[in-house]
From TrEMBL:
Name of the protein this chain belongs to: DUF3703 domain-containing protein
Domain of life: Bacteria
InterPro entries recorded: DUF3703 (IPR022172)
Amino acid sequence: MARLDDSARALYRSEMAAAAATTKPDERWRHLERAHIVSQPDPWLHTCNHVAMFRFAVGQRDRREAIGQVVRIVVAAPGSLTGRYPEGNTGRVGAGLMTPMPIPDDIAATLVA
């Protein structure tokens, strides 16, 4: 199982705090997506991120996203534990469950460091 170092954990916490602090839905999703990219190697943080996405989707009354997040909550920890997750994936329903995506440069620099 991959472990996140302190700088990656700090970035995850920063993105989750920014998501909680904004009242703009698009900004909240962006921060949750960035936190998701960072969290993927860690089963606990990865699952927590999908729970946060689920809660936000429910609050937005977005049924499709909420149902998709339930599926992702179930598979997040096993995917992290086995290393079977699509790197860079933003974690949203529209991104596809197993579609790899480019990792933003600033996040990639933190994950490599």
